[in-house]
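#structure-requests
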Amino acid sequence: MTRPLTGSFWPTPQQTLLLRAALGDGEAWRRVRPSIDLDTLESEALVLLPLLHSQLVAAGVDDPLLPRLRGIHHRTWYVNQLRLDRAAPAVAALQAAGAEPLLVNSFELVVAYYRDLGARSVTALNVLVRPDRFDAALRALGDVARRGRDWASFAGADGDEWVVRRRLVDEFARDVPDLWDEAVALELGSVAAAALSPTDELLAVCLTGARAGRGGALVWVPDEAPTLRVSGDAIDWPRLVESAMRLRATLRLRDALTFLRTELDAPIPESVVNELERVPVKRRDALAHRLAARGAPESMTRFLGATADASTLGALSRLPSFLRDEWSLERRSQVPLAALRRVRRTR
């Protein structure tokens, strides 16, 4: 690695072995198999079991675990199919509202890249909509269950979750403007839908996965493998780097690609990692990267990124307006009371 990767969210050596096994590394499976007990396996590693089953079957491995793994794979396929069928009308409703939804980190992964509904559990419909149609998109889906600055979550039938976003990655103050120009079509059940391009999908997988405080943090790692395998030469590496620069996310993308390349032998050009290394980084962007690795609140890291070009005094003068927007308040004068309430809730 070019430099140590900070953050407790990176896979442990044992988890890395299981990851390699789930991606088809037979030697890794032989090394990790003696320690695998499905009854005591940590919850983060459970997300890898459906994919592990597919790989073991493809390799012709005969193992006493296969019947249980087959059951896990079958259940994943069944639940995903039900969720996909229920999610399709929500996508159609967003389309009818003119929101032009793009699937991201969601069903497009199993449909277009894994090409196996049983290989990876999809826990939520996750879509990106045109920023100027965000409010229309929310109205199209009904009552909001939870709301953030740039996202809203809805409770669908049978415990389903639908998440609508107007920003590709919540933490970064900027966005990639031409995502819709590069989008690709796919069939989502009975609905003709659209998803990020392979290049933008890889960017989203890395930036949303390689961060602290993520549930099921391991799943982002195998997500990149089918993206690269299916896309092949379709990955536009210069665009990937340029998009990370626009987002001011080069440090996180560098760390994610470094891990994938060195620990999992992902076909990522060394020149791409080296180019990310050479990108000049503002001091506040570097601080935001370090704090994010320690699990700092996203609002803090987003503020640092949003004010990276400002002087210290200029940044502080923008803080009340930033917090007003961050907390969905009407006036800056409401910020002190809102801050006090938040402090009390954390005690």
